[in-house]
Amino acid sequence: MTRRDGPESGGQISRKQTPGTQLPGTQTLERTATARPRMWRVLLLNDDYTPMDFVVFVLARYFRKPEQEAQQIMLAVHHKGQGVAGLYTRDIAETKVAQVTAHARREGYPLRAVAEPEADE
């Protein structure tokens, strides 16, 4: 016993499609390659008032840096005027900047964090 799927039996019409052919009314969708999002650097900037211990604390808490790496970044901030705290997508970088700035202000420190786009290679 065979079953017929056709309009008279209430089923849908079944058409075989050979490779390279399209059924009438169909579209071929092409996949587009998604580009990687642009990355942003979060920089901590040196000032004359924020204690080094607080900068290390910020790096550990908000950027999840181990103690030794946080110390190295803090020394770069102190000696070079700025240090890279991390590399993130834009939204995350802006959030980190806002969190660090808010915490520093609550503690009474003028520590500045900024986000800038990573240089194109």
UniProtKB/TrEMBL annotation:
* Alphabetical list of Gene3D superfamilies matching this protein: 3.30.1390.10
Which one Pfam family would you cite for this protein? ClpS
What keywords appear on the UniProt entry?
Hydrolase, Protease
SUPFAM superfamilies this protein is in? ClpS-like
The annotated regions of Low complexity compositional bias extend over 17-29
| GO MF annotation terms | peptidase activity
Tell me how this protein assembles: Binds to the N-terminal domain of the chaperone ClpA.
Q: Residues in domain Adaptor protein ClpS core? A: 36-113
What's an example Gene Ontology biological process for this entry? Answer: proteolysis
The entry's protein name is ATP-dependent Clp protease adapter protein ClpS
The entry's function note states: Involved in the modulation of the specificity of the ClpAP-mediated ATP-dependent protein degradation.
Q: Which family does it belong to?
A: Belongs to the ClpS family.
Region feature Disordered, mapped onto this chain: 1-32
Taxonomically, the superkingdom here is Bacteria
TM helices/strands, residue ranges: none
Q: Coiled-coil intervals in this record?
A: none
